[in-house]
Amino acid sequence: MNRKTLVLPAVIGLLAPVLAACGGSDSGSGDSGAIVVGTTDRFTASKDAPAPLDPAYAYDVGTWNILRQTVQTLMIQPRGEGEPVPEAAERCGFTDTGNERYACTLRDGLKFANGNAVTAADVKYSIDRARSLKADSGVFALLSTIDTVETQGDREVIFHLKTADATFPFKLSTPVAGIVDPDDYPKNKLRDGFDLEGSGPYTLKADVDNGELVKAEFTKNPDYKGTLEVNNDKVDMVSFKDADAMGKALDKGDIDLMTRTMSPDQIRELSGDADSGVDLVEMPGLEIRYLGFNTDAPTVKSKAVRQAMAQVVNRSELVSKVYGSQAEPLYSLVPATVTGHSNSFFNKYGEPNVTKARSLLNQANITTPVKLTLHYTTDHYGPATKKEFEVLRDQLNSSGLFDVGIKGTPWDTFRPAEKKGEYDVYGMGWFPDFPDADNFLAPFLDADNTLGSPYDNSQIRNTLIPESRREADRLSAASSLTDIQDIVAGDVPVLPLWQGKQYVAARDDITGTAYALNSASTLQLWELGRGVSG
Q1: Which residues form the Solute-binding protein family domain (predicted)?
Q2: Quick check: 500 and 515 in contact, CB under 8 A?
Q3: Which domains does the chain carry?
Q4: Who is most buried in 82, 364, 384, 402, counting CB within 10 A?
Q5: Could you give the CA distance from residue 426 to residue 292 in angstroms, rounded to a whole number?
Q6: How far is 260 from 243, CA to CA, in rounded Å?
Q7: Measured between alpha carbons, how far is 279 from 217 in angstroms, rounded to an integer?
Q8: Using omega within 30 degrees of 0 as the cis cutoff, is the peptide bond preceding 163 cis?
Q9: Residue 532 has pLDDT above 90, yes or no
Q10: What does the pLDDT look like over 422-450, one tens digit per residue?
């Protein structure tokens, strides 16, 4: 069996073809056992983050990929992208012309995995709980346009919004809007540890070692009612310490599929090896990487320093040296394939230019070289992150305008420190909550933003974001969205670097790999099945 690279369409909203990989003799756990999926995501319960799987707290792609299998939402993003469709709901929709009143009717007979009925009161409880707890992850900000939640009987839920929000159906498809049982989730505190119940397609058994989830066992929920077709009875997700260990497990047949995060070298090898029972599937992705700034920190408080960095950084060289064809330079927080994208950073700064950067610093009376430390996480965005920051360091230092060092820290330490404002400059990635330009802007720029950034632009927050959300036709929102991106390019509270593709590598008897991930990097385990050898 030859190894194949299957490349799926790169246009959001375009329905990808259904691809079923064919014949291989080995599998991760035998034909009758669980499908075993490998990941390098780490799931740790710590003093700083004791409740990693509580929907009111979780806000990273790894934990969301556990919640999406187990905790049901009113809406869900459809198989082939596009507008959200009802999931726990039978129907949902705006009931006014101003996009400020949104009503949903629950499916009849919904049950939590513990047997309790799911009611409209549970939906209200879950949403109100997330809004009131205001976890420091910032995930509650996705629900910020809600004013009040009303119920009528056991199946009707009505959301009254503070302002028009055409993106609200997308927000109801995210795990923070997941429906939880009040018996299991206290109103006034987060639920610590890895216990997790819902009404989704799977139940979860967590295998925990020393405060870390090492394996998540997903078993098909016999009481599940929703839009999803579950193509397997059991999936085990195993967490590996790094991409090399995950790759070796796939080669040995200990796992059936590996996903984020593979190394660039692994992807290149998988693409070129024509003699293996493993298929590599390349999919469009909306992952972005960027530098964030604590704009109150003395070293980068001056806009001129941040602008000079934007003028020096060479994205094309960075991508070429580290990621090759697996990524593309990005000149905005909004990826190039998303409606509303503008190349605002390129429009303002053009090609890298040290002379222009020096002029910016001189005009602001900034003494050079500017001494900085770039912080990055060693274990969250893949093994190439260190090399990426080495290239960035060298680019900045070679200009003679900066004296930059780099420091790597594990994610369970890095993320709390970043949120507390302990880093002046730090590297982050973003996997969208939903594929709309609003979700690449508001989470970084609005009040209660996910970075805890002190940057506050009143025009963006009070005028442009609300203005863009009034437009149900997202093309009509392009003017407001472009204005936001232009302001960001001028002020540089964040510095976008690149956007990436995404990949799945699977033994070739695993079917459904074309839909294993959607463009927002949502892991859709229910799509996976086993095929026939040959």
Answers
A1: 83-449
A2: no
A3: 35-277+508-533 (3.40.190.10), 285-501 (3.10.105.10)
A4: 402
A5: 5
A6: 9
A7: 24
A8: no
A9: no
A10: 999 999 999 899 989 999 999 999 998 98
